[in-house]
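Structure request: DNA polymerase V, Acinetobacter amyesii.
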Amino acid sequence: MTSNHGGSRQGSGRKALYEEPTKVIRVPESKVIEIKHFLAESKKPIFNDVASITQVDPTTFMRIPLASEKVSAGFPSPAQDYIEQTLDMNEHLIKNEAATFVVTVSSQSMLGAGIDINDELVVDRSLEAKHEDIVVVWIDNEFTVKRLMIEEGKNRWLKAENPDYPNIHFHDGQEVVVWGVVTFVLKSFKKHK
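Returned structure:
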């Protein structure tokens, strides 16, 4: 007998309900409903995408050589001297010292925007959030990082940049505060051993 199934497909099968591996266990029959209720409650959206928040203290001063010409993906000529000025990273990344924080990300809800777990975000609390800005939002006593969507009529909602995570639509009575606007993502491309 031959199978009409085409084999496994990427992305098919059961979807993970929890952001970690699961394990089969034996439980008493009298506790099954209680455990199912507990698990159903744990599947409610968790918005805490932030591992830590640190206020910027730009007391250090370091000037880094700045190339005067833009660099293509190829190799520049070693015969040319590109260094004409220096750049202070504090001046480059921080526009309002008192309102700037570094936020460490703890989820992959913004992976499509290039933001991954443990990336650090430079967040300016003094900026007014505009349509499609990436923002840190305080919602239901948790922090989340999402793209702010503002539709006609002032309808606001938060867009996840990963299809595995839900968008967030606000409802009446929900405590929502746009905490700050993300201005830079600090990311290492070198793997640490």
